[in-house]
Design a protein that fits this description.
globular, Jelly Rolls, about 800 residues, 3 domains, nine-stranded antiparallel β-sheet, single chain, Rossmann fold, about 15% helix, alpha+beta, nine-stranded mixed β-sheet
Length: about 800
């Protein structure tokens, strides 16, 4: 489609959406999917049209014999394929194409970002008001345009009322009705600006703390007044009566042409509406209450204390049943104006025991967790389909070039099929954590290097959302991500870092192990990490479980299910680095994942805001699992230590330390002696087993400290008994230089003089656990990268599998 035609298409599509046209699909919708779509319906909401090709699946994994839906938005004709990824990690040339459709008339499906509270039962239109007060605590992020705080009006009509903040941090108060005509009054700019609050935040650094402000607007029949933090900052003589219109009441948004718009980028607490004008004395008392208690019922029309701290229901305590519904999720568990969030890193803080914590809700104009698109294709996976990584693939032409778009999903064996010896866990939580720029253009060719800023990142585009490595556009930390969204970053041919390195820590890292297993004849059952989270019996009966690639993000349930499996005599093979480094949780229907990153490498929370790291899903502490009560080293024997960019010169292979160990001896003789090196590609010196991020025993971490032990921090930790170190992953600091980095147990970067005196970046271990089970760990993200190129490394892994009673099918 040419550029002019594409622009015309987007204009016509926008008009169709605005007119309420339903974008249909030829696919048959299942009853369960139809019910989910009905529940996902939202009130009329500003649509954002999408150019290009985008798709996602309705589920992360699907069993053979079951159906999966593909939700596509496209402005280009295309061919859609369902494919099983083949043995070639570098291209789709050997993939199995299971089904294909040609689409000559594509359908664009818009997105509807922006969170706010929708109140379906507003102030009645037949009740004119001679007095009114609007009250709300706000903590602003970066404001763009004019955004609504509390409003009941459509800006195309004069009736109604509204309290707004502007981009220049001024406050506006609007009243309309009998004798009022477009009566808007506002304060001077920067009346809502605290110290340092105008400093620009970027998308990758942790934003500074913001300041709460108590915002009150009153009308007593003759004057309008605005108070900020108890001080009157504006007064205007007016007269008339306020006429509420027949339109929804919105907290954190406005009405424009019948749709919600003007979404607020702010934290809010205790929004309240009164049918009378509060006095200056009453306003001062409300300021001093710090939103810890609701107001008296005198003249109260609506009050939402926001005590729920989870879900989308917001209760009104005025007695008028003006309950609200949160649209697009928003963020709970941030505390209120009275909350001191500067909690100690190793303290025993419990939010349920903190009477001064209060309650708040964080709104964002780009909040989006479910695209809510109609399904375009539905496909039933064959009963005999092989388990593994699959994609919905879109082939299309743009600017005379062929382009490929991929939406990954995992196929599990059918419930009636016998189990393979190995359970293979794809690191899907990490894929989602890095799923930045879901609506980016599609790159030409097969591969493209995409970092934590995504592909084709435009910071001014509201369609370039956040992830666990980039904040919301207005600066809010990104604590939650939706699963019903496109994630092209997780594609099988997406690279990360230097294109010359030709590597990615996401799907590509997992695929090196998967294709090695298939090539060597090992049968396996593939799963997503969400499958493990949901099913406590998932691992029962497997001879071994493989954790691969970059399995960085774990839930408590994942941890417990692996622990139970090990203690029942199971075996784990870990070919993953930076494993179990961040805690995640899921909401009830497993459509939103939550991760609150504090203190560790890549934290989104400053230390003075640490009190926000308690999850809304379960009210438990978030952050690094070792600080949440389930450390990686107690489960897998190792914790994170080292980082280097992929393909860095000096990031080396493994160095043998126990050549006499039985895993080097049988059934395949590994021809190595102590000090020998293995785990590299002889034809590509930068294709090494030690790369990106790697882990070591906790005793090794205890010997490396960047400074004094923090207050109340654990110290003197020792390895559990039974761990053998088979090999060490090494750094050559003369070559690596500043490209390498080591971090101590408390996440602090070691100074060069200390780190460069220590050449061990990774430790390969075999552990017979006292509590039951056995673990083999080659804990580096790139451990499997040279697996197919190094015969000695391949033999060693075969010996491990044999020791765990896993043998090739042809054997």
């Amino acid at each position: 489609m040419s550029d002019p035609n594409r622009r015309d298409f987007l204009k016509s599509s926008s008009a169709a959406v605005a007119a309420g046209t339903v974008l249909g699909a030829d696919a048959k919708i299942t009853g369960a999917e139809s019910k989910r779509q009905a529940e996902a319906c939202i009130p009329p909401h500003r649509p954002l049209p999408l150019d290009g090709v985008h798709t996602y699946t309705n589920r992360l994994s699907v069993a053979a014999g079951e159906t999966i839906d593909f939700h596509v938005s496209s402005t280009h004709p295309y061919e859609f394929q369902v494919c099983r990824l083949g043995p070639d990690v570098e291209s789709p040339s050997q993939d199995d194409v299971l089904q294909s459709w040609q689409v000559s008339q594509p359908v664009m499906q818009p997105i509807h970002p922006g969170s706010y509270i929708h109140v379906e039962s507003p102030l009645p239109e037949n009740q004119e008001l001679g007095a009114l007060t609007l009250e709300c605590w706000v903590r602003l992020w970066k404001v763009t345009g004019k955004q609504g705080v509390i409003t009941q009006r459509d800006e195309t009509r004069p009736e109604g009322y509204g309290l707004y903040v502007r981009e220049d941090r001024a406050v506006e108060f609007y009243l309309g009705g009998a004798q009022f005509v477009q009566e808007t009054h506002g304060t001077q700019p920067d009346t809502l600006t605290g110290p340092g609050e105008k400093d620009e935040d970027d998308y990758f650094t942790v934003p500074p703390a913001k300041q709460w402000h108590h915002l009150v607007a009153t009308f007593d029949g003759s004057h309008k007044r605005i108070f900020i933090d108890g001080q009157r900052v504006g007064q205007w003589k007016v007269s008339g009566r306020v006429k509420p219109p027949r339109t929804p009441l919105r907290v954190g948004g406005v009405g424009r042409d019948g749709q919600a718009d003007g979404f607020l980028d702010a934290d809010i607490a205790m929004p309240t509406i009164y049918g009378r004008a509060l006095s200056a004395t009453e306003i001062k008392a409300r300021l001093e209450a710090k939103a810890l208690r609701p107001p008296a019922k005198d003249g109260l029309l609506a009050c939402w204390p926001l005590i729920e701290e989870q879900g989308d229901h917001v209760a009104d305590v005025s007695g008028h049943n003006r309950h609200g519904r949160i649209i697009n999720h928003a963020t709970w568990m941030i505390g209120g104006p009275s909350f001191d969030a500067n909690i100690g890193q190793f303290s025993s803080y419990d939010p349920d025991q903190d009477t001064a914590r209060g309650h708040g809700l964080r709104l964002a104009s780009d909040d989006l967790y479910d695209c809510r698109w109609q399904p375009t294709f539905q496909y039933r996976i064959p009963e005999d389909a092989k388990s593994g990584a699959y994609v919905g693939r879109i082939r299309f032409q743009l600017d005379g070039e062929s382009r490929l778009y991929h939406s990954l999903f995992i196929v599990k064996k059918s419930a009636s099929a016998s189990r393979a010896p190995v359970a293979f866990l794809f690191s899907t939580n990490t894929w989602k954590a890095y799923s930045v720029t879901p609506f980016s253009p599609t790159w030409p060719g097969i591969k493209a290097s995409v970092g934590t800023d995504g592909y084709w990142f435009d910071p001014d585009d509201p369609r370039s959302p956040y992830c666990c490595y980039r904040h919301h556009r207005a600066g809010q930390p990104a604590y939650q991500l939706g699963l019903r969204m496109p994630w092209p970053t997780a594609g099988p041919y997406t690279l990360e870092g230097s294109p010359q390195a030709d590597f990615s820590h996401l799907c590509r890292a997992d695929r090196f192990t998967e294709t090695w297993l298939a090539r060597e004849g090992y049968d396996y059952d593939a799963y997503s990490e969400l499958d493990l989270h949901q099913d406590p019996r998932l691992l029962d009966g497997y001879q071994a479980v493989m954790i691969v690639g970059h399995s960085e993000y774990w839930s408590r349930q994942q941890y417990e299910h692996v622990r139970q499996y090990l203690e029942s005599g199971g075996n784990v093979i870990c070919l993953s680095g930076n494993t179990l480094y961040w805690r995640v949780s899921f909401d009830e229907d497993h459509s939103v994942v939550e991760c609150r990153k504090a203190d560790g490498w890549g934290a989104q929370l400053r230390s003075e805001r640490r009190g926000e790291c308690w999850h809304s899903h379960d009210r438990r502490r978030g952050g690094v699992p070792r600080e949440c009560g389930f450390p990686a080293w107690k489960l897998l024997g190792v914790e994170f230590l080292s980082y280097n960019p992929m393909g860095s010169a000096g990031a080396g292979p493994f160095r043998v330390t126990q050549a006499e160990h039985f895993l080097f001896q049988k059934p395949n003789r590994v021809n190595l002696k102590n000090g020998d090196r293995f785990g590299f590609d002889p034809d590509n010196p930068r294709r090494q087993a030690i790369g990106n991020e790697s882990d070591v025993r906790v005793s090794t971490l205890m010997r490396l400290a960047a400074g004094p032990i923090p207050e109340d921090a654990p110290s003197g930790l020792t390895d559990p008994p039974g761990i053998d170190v088979l090999a060490q992953g090494v750094y050559d600091w003369k070559q690596l230089g500043s490209n390498g980095q080591l971090r101590d147990y408390y996440h602090r970067v070691l100074p060069p003089e200390l780190s460069q005196s220590h050449d061990v970046a990774c430790e390969m271990i075999y552990w017979e656990r006292e509590d039951g089970g056995r673990v083999f760990a080659a804990p580096s993200i790139s451990a499997a990268w040279p697996l197919a190129r190094d015969e000695q490394w391949s033999k060693l892994l075969k010996n491990v599998l044999d020791h765990f009673d896993v043998r090739p099918m042809h054997a």
